[in-house]
Amino acid sequence: MWNYLFQQGIKINFAHRTFKWESEAKGKAHVHVVIIGFGRKERRSKRIYEYDTISSEIHEIEVKNISPYLVEGSNIVILPQSRPICDVPPTIYGNKPADGGYLMVDTEEHEYLEKNDPAVLQYVYPMISAREYFHGKQRYCLWLKDASPAFLRNNPFLKERLLGV
Fold first, then answer.
1. Quick one: which of 39, 44, 57, 147 has the most CB atoms within 10 Å?
2. Distances from the Cα of 133 to the Cα of 55, 57, 100, 128, 129, angstroms
3. Per the confidence metrics, is the pTM higher than 0.85?
4. Burial class of 142 by CB neighbour count within 10 A (0 to 12, 13 to 18, 19+)
5. 88-113 tens-digit pLDDT
6. CB 156, CB 162: distance < 8 Å
7. 101 in the Ramachandran plot: left (φ > 0), alpha (ψ -120 to 50) or beta?
8. Counting beta carbons within 10 angstroms of the beta carbon of residue 134, is it exposed (0 to 12), middle (13 to 18) or buried (19 or more)?
């Protein structure tokens, strides 16, 4: 969108970075807002309004130019690419666990470890992908980088998982 608008001579004259909008509706929708003031006429004085947190007081910054990323900078837009820019194999998967699921820990397993094997929890970290983020799910993964080989060999839960991988 921004490349097209810039080609039409549109300029960004002011911008409010993300802030929280309070709804008066029953049920209180959670809405985060940005406001972008743009037009064909370019203002000499451009301002970015920012907030330390999404619900804090506003701070005004005078800038020379506002980029489409709502920071001071040039009107360069990074476009998506579907092919590599050099001679390398294409990426088929960006982030895909390929452990057969053995390094994953679900909520029930996490609860089991809390009660029966709490020493393992130092190696269990939350894993947040789109599914967890958008659907409020909890999932964990084993992160064994700093685990000693003796601990891995002697812990039945971890030993079973690593043999599966």
1. 147
2. 21, 28, 22, 6, 6
3. no
4. buried
5. 887 777 667 788 999 999 999 999 99
6. no
7. left
8. exposed
Work out the percent of the chain whose per-residue pLDDT is above 70. Answer: 99
Question: Which tokens go with 114?
Answer: 């809390």
Contact 5, 40 (CB under 8 A): no
108 token code pair: 């029930």
Non-local CB neighbours of 163 within 8 Å, separated by 6+ positions: none
Residues found in the chain: 165
Say how far apart CA 1 and CA 53 lie, in whole Å: 27
Q: Which residue has the tokens 């064994």?
A: 144
Q: How far apart are CA 123 and CA 144, in angstroms?
A: 6
Place of tokens 């990323």: 69
